[in-house]
Structure formats: C-alpha cells, structure tokens
Specification:
Organism: Bacillus infantis
Structural class: alpha+beta
Strand content: 5-15%
Strand order of the largest sheet: 2-3-1-4-5
Shape: globular
Protein name: Apea-like HEPN domain-containing protein
Number of helices: 26
Mean pLDDT: 91
Length: about 600
C-alpha cells in the first residue's frame, strides 16, 4: 500500500471523513501501484471476464486448436468467482445458481459435441444478461457499501471494479491517476459524494480518438514509409488541421508519422500503447527489407478534444524487480563455480540467465513475453513429467508456496513502514525497513499470539486497509485448518494462472494474438520466474543436490508433505479446537527442517 494515505492525512488534507471512503482510496491506489506485490494488485479476472475467457477458449476447442482439458481448470476458477460474487447474488440470484449448477467440463471423447454445445449456449445467454449491466451493478453496490460503511464489501467490490475496467480497456497507470485527480487534490475540498459523481462519470465515459505523432529524421525516405502504409504528414499540415493546439509542440518543417488510436478520453496511456503497437507492426515490414527507421523516444499526442496536446515519453516494457542485495549475487556465483552440482545443471542455469536477459533487452512486449516463457521452460523441464507445461504447473506453485507466508509477512512490514508504524514484540523493535528472517519469525509469533495481535491492530488503526490486512493474516495463520486453506488456495490459483499464461503464450506464438492485459501478465510471469530462481539458488547453496531434477522433486514433495502434515493435524484435533502447527513448517518446510 502507499504512504501518506493514513486516515488522519486523508481527513485533514483531502476532506475524506469516514472509514469507508478512506479504505476505497487506500485499496484503489494499492491495486494499481506498480510496486504492489501481485497478491494485492488488481486481479486479472472477475466473474464477467472469466466467463468471456471460457467462451473464447471454447472457440479454440471447437476448432481443435487446443484440447478440452483447458476448459476444466477455467471452469473451476470461474466457480470460485461465482461463489463470491455479491452483485450476481443480489441482482441475478437465479442466473448465479444456474451457472453454479450447470458449468461443467467437456468429456474427452464427446463425439456428439453435446457438452460443448450446452456450455456454449449457457455462456452466451448468461453473458447477454451480464455484459450490459455488470459495470453499473459493481459501481452501484460499491456506492451503497460506502454509504453503509461495509468495509469488507468495499475492498472486494473495489477489486472487481478495477478488474472490470482493466478488461474494458483502461490502463493501470490511468486508473491509478484517476483517484489522485478526483480524491487526492488539496485544492478540491468538496465532499466525497461530489468527487465520487465526477469519478464515476469518467470511468463510464466514452472513448475518443487520440492523434499520435512520431517525428522523423530528416534523412528518412518519406515515400517508402507511405508505401508501407504509414501516414506521413508535415508539421505545418498538422497545425492547419488542429488550429487550437499549442504550436510549440510541433516543428512546422519536420515530417511526422501520424497514427490514431481509440481509448477512453482520460486514458492517454492506453492510446499511446495501442498506437505504438500498431506502428511497430508496420515498421517490422520495413525492417525485414532493411529500410532504416527512426528510433522514436517521444510521441506528440493530440487529445480527443483536439485542444490539449502533450509530449509522451516512449519506454520499452520495464520488468519489476524485488530488491536485490550483493549477498544474493554472491550466493549465485558460488553455486555456479562450486563442485556440488553437475555440469549440465550449471549450463542450464547459465542458459536461463541468457534467455532472461534477452527478455530484459526486448523492445516489444511480445518478444519480452516469449523470451520470459522460454527462460522458465528451459530451466524447469527435466523430463519427470510428460509435457512441458505440466513441469511448470507443478514446480512453480510449489516454489511460491514455500515462501508465500514469508513474502506476505515481509510485505506487511514494508506496509507498516509506509504507514509510519513502528512494531515491537516483547520490548524488541522489529525491523520494518530491511526485515531479516528473525524479524519475520518475530512478526509471525506476534500475529499468532491473540493478546499481542489485538494490541497491534489497535496500534495501526490510523490506516484502515493496513488494519484489515493485518486481521486477514492473523486469520490465515490461526491454526492448521486456516493455514491449509490459505496455502492450498494459493497453489491452486497459481496453477490456474500458469495455464492461462501458457495459453496466452501459444496464442501469441501461433496466432500472433496479443492479449489486452499482456503487461499485467508479463509482471506475473516475471515474478514467478524470479521467485523460482531465488529459491532454486538458495536450495542448491544450502543442501546437497546434484541436479535440477532432484531439487525440483524435493520442492514439490516439500509442498505436499506440508499439506499432509496440516491435514493430519486437523484429523487429530479435538472437537471445536483445531491444532496449531510447528513454525518451522512455514519457515523451512517439512523436508528442509
């Protein structure tokens, strides 16, 4: 979550007066903040978007492009969304129950295609009902929850509203900015309701046409560019066509490539992204014929009102990294020069780093995505499963679950730092700036102590979202049953998402189809990859493994052993009192204690 959004600051500086309004702002800014960990970022899917996704996947199945097995996990994920959907439960309860009863997979040998047709018809009529009104339902329910101060529903509804807007074509950057514009403006001291009306108007606004202009070098062959389908226009002609714009943004004697894009009128980021992608496709043709083209660093954008104009800096997709310390680099070097692992393993790790570096240097999101996937595939496929995707779907979730609690705890401490909160346990201050393993274990002990955790929640009450987040973590760590649900849900969600990433990768490679939310997908894939290599290097450095197959099998077995221990604890618990668990299960894992 972001700093300087404490309740007291929101109230005194921005005239945000109640907790419901505060948590909406805090949650919204967190969801779209680029440094937020993926657990708390805007979700890629809600009920509406996953029903649309199932419909699209069904078309691929009907054309024999992908197998029916792809639909089973999607339906399981969809049911999870349906079960939590407040809007459908309230406004379309019969439809909700019908979907929960009727959404089923497709039999592998269904020669009559009856399962496929039933699913297709059910999806189409359901989407006909949902699509036209879902955004309004979310907005209205969120508005009602803010009025009634229903904090839990506000967090959930804010989440699915963000997802709906992203899937409708908004960019994360513009959505992040909107709340600052409407609710975090010191010069606007209107009541929250007035700001809400304006905010609501913008997120429901129409699309507009953005005119994007890319300045060419003087030696560029204009006729060749025009033959390639590019619109080339002189600066003076642009000013003649748009006589209300500031002329200082254009060189009247220079030539510009002109490209238009449609996006929501307050979403310049999506407009430039679409325009630049469209331009890249045409430039690829010129590159093939070895025709040099300007490397564009800026795009001059005329906004839909044809009066405002801005110079937009163009950047390639930047991958997000966790903080990197010299110790991690040293550990990796020691693993690669050591004698404990075989030569093939060292070669594969080095090859992974080369592949990953290609993704970092890529200029297009498509190449970044493809190289990221190739890097993880080259590392994880050892032959102990029949397919490449099965390796990744088993290994990556196991790795992420092995560090999931530590990551959540570490993020909580960083959130405390941003909120200006000092945490101590038994008189010892816990480091919230660069927490060590010992700090995380102290926080764990604090959160699993009812008296201490209650005191902590009282101490962080000036940041409502932080307080609710703390309670969520306390609930997850409470006993063997709650931890089992928390960890196994994360494993399942990660596995579903990896299957989605793989399907998107195949669409990109085989059909040149780029998903609208590919930048968010890239961030998730990058996180999975960096988490994998971090755990891999740590295990190779700390334990005796000769090759990758051994360590991957041990990591998978470690996850399933943890699940087995927790299930055994639940089974052996006295009635009404679920047993706790050994802390080392969380911080080390049953096979690495």
């Amino acid at each position: 979550m972001e700093s300087k959004l404490n309740n007291s600051i929101l109230k005194s500086t921005y005239n945000v007066v109640n907790e419901a309004e505060m948590i909406f702002i805090q949650k919204w800014r967190e969801m779209f903040f680029f440094k937020t960990i993926n657990t708390y970022q805007v979700k890629l899917r809600n009920t509406h978007s996953i029903l649309e996704e199932i419909k699209d996947v069904l078309e691929y199945i009907k054309k024999d492009i992908i197998s029916p097995s792809n639909i089973h996990e999607l339906i399981a994920e969809c049911r999870k969304h349906l079960e939590k959907d407040i809007c459908l439960r309230k406004h379309h309860p019969d439809l909700l129950n019908s979907l929960l009863r009727g959404l089923k997979g497709i039999k592998k040998n269904d020669t009559e295609k009856s399962d496929t047709l039933r699913l297709e018809y059910r999806l189409k009529y359901s989407l006909n009902i949902i699509s036209s009104s879902y955004l309004d339902l979310i907005i209205n329910e969120l508005e009602n929850s803010i009025i009634t101060n229903d904090l839990t529903n506000i967090e959930y509804l804010t989440d699915i509203l963000g997802t709906e807007l992203i899937n409708n074509g908004w960019s994360s950057r513009s959505l992040h900015r909107l709340v600052k514009v409407f609710f975090l403006n010191k010069n606007n001291q209107q009541p929250f309701n007035n700001k809400w009306v304006n905010f609501k108007g913008v997120i429901k606004s129409r699309r507009g046409v953005f005119h994007c202009h890319y300045k060419l070098d003087q030696n560029q062959r204009i006729e060749t560019l025009m033959h390639a389908g590019l619109s080339v226009i002189k600066g003076s002609e642009i000013l003649s066509s748009f006589n209300n714009v500031d002329p200082n943004h254009f060189d009247i004697n220079a030539y510009y490539i002109q490209n238009i894009a449609e996006a929501y009128i307050e979403d310049i980021h999506s407009a430039v992204y679409m325009s630049t992608n469209n331009l890249s496709e045409k430039i690829s043709l010129l590159s093939y014929y070895e025709i040099p083209i300007t490397h564009f660093t800026h795009c001059v954008v005329i906004m839909p009102d044809e009066e405002r104009v801005t110079s937009y800096e163009l950047k390639s997709k930047e991958l997000i990294y966790d903080s990197i310390d010299s110790e991690s680099i040293e550990t990796t070097k020691e693993v690669l020069i050591g004698t404990s692992i075989d030569t093939e393993t060292k070669n594969r790790i080095n090859n992974f780093f080369r592949q990953y570096n290609l993704s970092v240097e890529s200029l297009s999101v498509e190449t970044t995505y493809s190289n990221l996937w190739t890097s993880i595939e080259s590392l994880l496929v050892t032959g102990h499963y029949e397919t490449n995707i099965e390796h990744i779907k088993k290994i990556v979730p196991s790795i992420l679950c092995s560090r999931y609690i530590q990551r959540i705890l570490k993020n909580f401490l960083h959130d405390c730092k941003r909120a200006g909160v000092i945490i101590s346990y038994k008189g010892t201050v816990i480091n919230i700036h660069s927490p060590s393993q010992d700090d995380l274990e102290k926080l764990f002990t604090l959160l699993t102590d009812p008296a201490e955790s209650s005191s902590l929640i009282s101490g962080i009450s000036d940041y409502t979202l932080l307080s609710q987040r703390c309670q969520e973590i306390i609930n997850a760590l409470e006993n063997s049953k709650t931890l089992l649900e928390f960890i196994s849900n994360h494993y399942k969600t990660t596995s579903w998402h990896i299957q989605r990433i793989y399907r998107i990768r195949n669409n990109l490679v085989h059909a040149a189809f780029v998903e609208r939310d590919i930048n968010l997908i890239i961030d998730h894939l990058n996180f999975y990859i960096r988490s994998t290599i971090s755990v891999l290097v740590d295990r190779l450095n700390s334990f005796q493994f000769n090759n990758l197959g051994e360590i991957f099998m041990a990591i998978e077995d470690n996850y399933f052993s943890l699940i087995a221990v927790l299930e055994e604890n639940i089974k052996n618990s006295p009635r009404g009192d679920i047993l706790f668990y050994d802390k080392d299960l969380v911080f080390k894992g049953p096979l690495f204690i």
